[in-house]
Every structure is written in C-alpha cells, then in structure tokens.
Design a protein that fits this description.
six-stranded antiparallel beta sheet, 7 helices, 24% helix, globular, PPM-type-like_dom_sf, PPM-type_phosphatase-like_dom
Length: 324
C-alpha cells in the first residue's frame, strides 16, 4: 500500500435487509408536479443525538410505492431537546386521501413542537393536552387557506387537502437511567414499549372492524377529539420507546415476525445503533409493505459514546439477513 494512504475498513457495499420475499427494487422518481415542488421534500430524513438523560434516533423515508409513482413522502417527524433535559417527539402521517397531506404533516409537526416548547409546564400530571391539538388543527386550517387562496380558513377544505395523524410525546428524566414518557395521539399512528424483548402497544394503530378486517379509514387532524387522555409509561435502563407511522406498524404487527425480530436485535443491543445503522434497519425490504415509514426510538441514556479515534469491538454475527 502506498505510504500516506489510509486503509479503508469495512464494506463499501451495504445490502438492503430482506425479510421474507423482497419488494421490487425501485429507483426513486422525482416528485410529480401535482404535489407541488415547493416546499422541498427530501426522500429520506435522518436525525439522532443524545443529551445527559436520553438517546434518540429518527428516520422518515418515502415508501417504495411513492418512490415509484412520484408522490412525496407524506410522513414527518420532529425531535427537540428542551433546556431542562426533557425531549419532545412529534410524528405525523399524512392521510393518503388528502392530496397535499405531506404539507399537512410538516405543518402539524412544526406547530406541535413550537406549541409544546412555548407552553409545556414542568408538572405534567394535570397538564391539559387538548389546546395542543386545537392549536395544531388551526395551523392546518390557516395553511390550507394560504395554499388554496381562500378568503378565510375552511376546516372542510383543510381536511380534504392536508389531513394528517399526529403523535406527540414528552419524555422526562426520573432518575439514573430511567425516564417517563407522556404520549397523546390523533389518528392511527403507533407507539410501543420494547422491554425484555416484548413489544407492549401503547397507542392503538389501525383498529379491527367487527368482521376482523383492519379498517383503512383514518380520522386525524384538523378534526380534534372531544377529550385527550395521555398514555404515561415509565422506562428502565434496557427499555426502548418506539413511535411510528403505520408504514412501520403494519409490518411489525404484534412483533412476533421477522420485522419484530429485526428491531428487537437492532434496538436491543447494549448501546443504541448509529444513525446509519438505524436508517438501514428502517429501510428493510418486505413484499407488499411499500408505505412511507417513520420511526423514532428513545432510550434512557446508557453509556458515554466512544472517544474519537477509538475503534469499537466487533459485534457478534447477526442472525438477520443483511445485518452481517
């Protein structure tokens, strides 16, 4: 090897993780003009960081179907660190029947995060969450007014064009390596606690009809429920909070199949995955599951990151194809 040339360590080719039969391979197409080229909509968004109490990872990616047909990514998310160490997570899934729901999802996540930043109290035991949803719904009405050139806000037109689901979570430290999460939702997005290898559903996603068939009808913002009751869950050292859209929730199901095994392995390691490892797992290929995917994972802070220039010990060989 010529002097002064650094050695390349690791594979430059990373195969997609395949679970069962794969989805067709698709080269992402440009966004179709009917969905408006502005505001700019990236195919994939990746974020993640740690504060003194928590580690978070988040990915939102366009599904295979939208990559094929030119529709934009209709999901969005926000992760925000508050000065007191609490973390805000907001996840939105634009309703597919609403043509501009990608704009609705982005509007909702930004407004909800801004509202929580400005209005969140330290004591959440008796906090009123309903104004959060009302404020976000009104932001959608105003966005639709500007987008469509209406004389006044119109909730019906806003729902037709911008409807979106929403999950908001506030995670606060409660002790050494323990945290408490407060979650509310509007629509069919999902949340779970992954604890000791088991997925405990915190928010119900798609509901089954009396016939046993899952309904695809979604009621989200700007419709506001009459009342909002938060789900509160305490997390220990080895627990992981997952908040996702149905692009993750549908293939995950009860967590007993291949997708559950994948996330159980990737998220249950002694230290959280890197941003790229996390995004690689979310990008798994499985036949018929081609919806947009958004997943945010939250861990109580486990260990300090390795110092720059040090090499971590090799991980054991994975049993999941594509993670070797």
């Amino acid at each position: 090897m010529p002097g002064g040339v650094a050695e390349v360590v690791g594979s430059a080719v990373v195969p997609q993780i395949v679970i069962g039969a794969p989805s067709p391979s698709v080269e992402p197409s440009v966004i179709s003009p009917e969905y408006r080229s502005l505001p700019f909509r990236p195919d994939v968004v990746i974020d993640g960081w740690s504060n003194d109490y928590l580690t978070v990872r988040g990915v939102s990616q366009r599904g295979h179907l939208h990559r094929y047909n030119g529709a934009p990514r209709q999901d969005d998310f926000v992760m925000h660190n508050l000065p007191d160490g609490r973390v805000i997570v907001v996840v939105a899934d634009g309703v597919s029947a609403a043509p501009q729901s990608h704009i609705g999802a982005s509007t909702a996540t930004k407004q909800a995060a801004d509202w929580l930043h400005a209005n969140l109290r330290y004591d959440l035991a008796n906090f009123d969450w309903l104004p959060l949803l009302k404020s976000t719904a009104w932001a959608l009405n105003e966005r639709a007014q500007a987008l469509l050139g209406l004389d006044a806000p119109d909730p019906v037109r806003a729902e037709e064009q911008l409807a979106t689901t929403l999950v908001c979570a506030v995670i606060e430290p409660t002790g050494a390596h323990t945290v408490r999460a407060h979650l509310i939702s509007a629509g069919d997005s999902d949340a779970w606690l992954l604890s000791a290898g088991h997925y405990m559903e915190l928010l119900a996603g798609k509901t089954d009809s009396p016939s046993g068939i899952a309904s695809s009808a979604v009621v989200g913002l700007p419709r506001v429920p009459a009342e909002v009751a938060p789900v509160v869950v305490d997390m220990g050292y080895n627990d992981v909070l997952l908040i996702a859209t149905d692009g993750i929730g549908d293939p995950l199901g009860t967590g007993q199949g291949g997708v559950g095994n994948l996330f159980r392995e990737v998220l249950g390691r002694p230290s959280p995955p890197s941003l790229i490892e996390f995004a690689h797992a979310v990008d798994f290929s499985r036949e018929t599951f081609d919806d947009d995917r958004t997943l945010v994972a939250v861990w109580p802070r486990r260990e300090a990151p390795p110092q720059a220039g040090t090499r971590q010990a090799a991980r054991p060989r994975s049993q999941v194809e594509g993670l070797q």
